[in-house]
């Protein structure tokens, strides 16, 4: 494997590890999800560039990731307004 493929895979693993380990605040989880999305986009663009394919798939992927990010921020704003903080543990439905 080339070093150009190892870097996005490493970034994906680091982003996934942060997503798993930092579960206290919703904002940390959203930032790590966007980090994972950007690492997948980087890998997607490298593969399409090396294979000589058109890069419209990257544009569609970015559009979907922007929609996912705005939906996450909207959910976080609603949660802060209703519960007073972005602590994931403050949701009543998640308490065991």
UniProtKB/TrEMBL annotation:
Q: What is its main location?
A: membrane
Q: What is this protein called?
A: NADH-ubiquinone oxidoreductase chain 4L
Q: Gene Ontology terms, cellular component aspect? A: membrane
Could you tell me which Pfam families the record lists for this protein?
A: Oxidored_q2
Is the keyword NAD in the record?
A: yes
Report the locations given in the UniProt record: Membrane
Its organism's taxonomic lineage begins at: Eukaryota, Metazoa, Ecdysozoa, Arthropoda, Crustacea
TM region positions? 6-21, 33-53, 59-80
Indicate the family of this protein: Belongs to the complex I subunit 4L family.
The way this protein sits in the membrane is described as: Multi-pass membrane protein
User: What keywords tag this UniProt record?
Assistant: Membrane, Mitochondrion, NAD, Translocase, Transmembrane, Transmembrane helix
Q: Superkingdom of the source?
A: Eukaryota
Gene name, Swiss-Prot/TrEMBL: ND4L
- Tell me what reaction this enzyme catalyses: a ubiquinone + NADH + 5 H(+)(in) = a ubiquinol + NAD(+) + 4 H(+)(out)
**GO MF term set:** NADH dehydrogenase (ubiquinone) activity
């Amino acid at each position: 494997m080339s070093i150009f493929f190892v870097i996005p895979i490493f970034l994906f693993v680091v982003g996934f590890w942060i997503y798993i380990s930092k579960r206290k605040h919703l904002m940390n989880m959203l930032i790590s999800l966007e980090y994972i999305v950007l690492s997948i986009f980087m890998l997607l663009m490298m593969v399409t560039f090396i294979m000589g394919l058109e890069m419209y798939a990257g544009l569609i992927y970015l559009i979907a990731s922007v929609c996912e990010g705005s939906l996450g921020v909207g959910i976080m704003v609603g949660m802060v307004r209703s519960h007073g903080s972005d602590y994931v543990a403050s949701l009543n439905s998640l308490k065991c």
